[in-house]
Specification:
- It contains 16 helices and seven strands.
- It has a seven-stranded mixed beta sheet, sandwiched between helices.
- It is 53% helix and 10% strand.
- Helix 4 crosses helix 5.
- The chain folds into two domains: 223 residues, Glycerol-3-phosphate (1)-acyltransferase (3-Layer(aba) Sandwich), CATH 3.40.1130; 62 residues, no CATH class.
- The N and C termini lie far apart (50 Å).
- The protein is α/β, with parallel strands linked by helices and 377 residues long.
Length: 377
């Protein structure tokens, strides 16, 4: 058995059996009815049962579902930077993280459209508790990141994830997607956790770490949604944090958030790829002699690229002006856009609760504030 047995996606040889096992599952049927509303069940089911690889499942079913999501719940997706990728090269995409499913699904859709290999992607085990969701994750080439472990078990799990990422890129020539932090950004502050980079370094195993990081071909990814369809769902956690309370999720909260992210209105979406980090890594390792500082500096560089490439929308500028009671960015949005945004957040946020109002506005305003800091530094 592979040492990655507990975390790996399906092998292609396992795909057909998994699809056959879930062909009549209500959730799979719901996905198919959404994706192919005018296609008889017998037609998509027949094709599903003839599917024998992850790529075929992704191209013939998941990619079509993504197109349908974009059609139904967005005003379109734009991209930048994908033309710089080499089609047959593997990369480590380190991304800001806003939506549980769509961040990776959209990235893979664009990679497919550009003739590049789709990624194997990290997903938290909290999201795949139900057998069908775990099977769906494995069918879309996700690998599982275990959370909530003891310190010793977490160390072992992190090393296993690190080795899986290394082997995927170096030996399978398969790109990898990971988030810059554990979990989604709730407050609009897209910052790389040093622990993510520490995890990546664990598979270096005596090699020159600067060379190792360069061979990973790290590409910072910026994804931005004009409307965050899960913004109101993030409020309880933000308010608990503001009160210095420990937030405990409801039993089905992750699943509700997953569905809201897919079906909620996002308006415009943009994905931007930065350049592969190469010379920057050389400079960092020349200037810093401790691992702690090296990883901190790499994280700062990833943040700089993500924030520099982050597409700002009228909603972001409106939030800054509302937060600061100013008209500094009034030229970048219309009065109609401002009224629509105010109506959106006041429909779900208690306007008499200043902490709630500030928390919601900061979620949209922080990308503007953080990008401005990067551009003037």
């Amino acid at each position: 058995m592979s040492k990655f047995e507990a975390i790996r996606p399906y092998y292609d040889s396992e795909v057909n059996d998994a699809l056959a096992a879930y062909a009549d599952h209500p959730m799979l049927k719901a996905i198919m009815h959404f994706t192919f509303p005018d296609v008889p069940d017998e037609a998509w089911r027949s094709q599903l049962l003839r599917t024998h690889s992850i790529r075929d499942f992704q191209v013939n079913f998941i990619y079509q579902a993504v197109l349908r999501v974009l059609e139904r719940s967005s005003s379109g997706l734009t991209t930048s930077g994908f033309e710089k990728l080499e089609k047959n090269s593997a990369y480590l995409f380190i991304s800001n993280h806003r939506d549980i499913i769509l961040d990776t699904s959209l990235l893979n859709a664009v990679l497919y459209e550009h003739g590049c290999k789709m990624t194997t992607s990290a997903i938290g085990d909290n999201l795949v508790k139900k057998p069908f969701l775990k099977a769906l994750a494995k069918l879309t080439r996700s690998f599982i990141v275990h959370r909530g472990l003891s310190s010793r078990a977490m160390l072992e799990s992190s090393k296993l994830n690190s080795e899986y990422i290394r082997d995927s890129i170096f030996y399978e020539n398969r790109s990898v997607w990971i988030a810059q932090r554990e979990g989604r950004t709730k407050d609009g502050n897209d910052m790389t956790q040093k622990g993510v980079l520490k995890m990546l370094s664990m598979a270096c195993e005596g090699q020159d770490l600067a060379v190792y990081f360069k061979h990973l071909k790290i590409v910072p990814v910026s994804i931005s949604y004009e409307n965050d369809p899960t913004d109101l769902l993030k409020m309880p956690e933000l308010l608990a944090k503001a009160r210095s309370e420990t937030y405990v999720k409801d039993k089905n909260e992750d699943f509700r958030t997953l569905l809201s992210g897919i079906m909620g209105q996002k308006k415009r979406i943009h994905i931007a790829l930065g350049d592969v980090l190469h010379d920057e890594i050389d400079v960092i390792f020349q200037e810093e002699t401790t691992l702690n500082r090296q990883l901190q500096r790499i994280g700062e560089e990833i943040d700089r690229v993500i924030l520099s490439n982050f597409k700002l929308w009228p909603t972001n500028y409106i939030a800054v002006d509302l937060l600061h009671n100013s008209n500094e960015y009034a030229s970048l949005y219309t009065e109609a856009e401002k009224l629509a945004f105010e109506s959106r957040f006041l429909s779900g946020v208690d306007k008499d609760n200043p902490v709630a109002v500030q928390s919601f506005l900061a979620m949209y305003a922080n990308p503007v504030i953080n990008k401005h800091k990067v551009l003037i530094s």
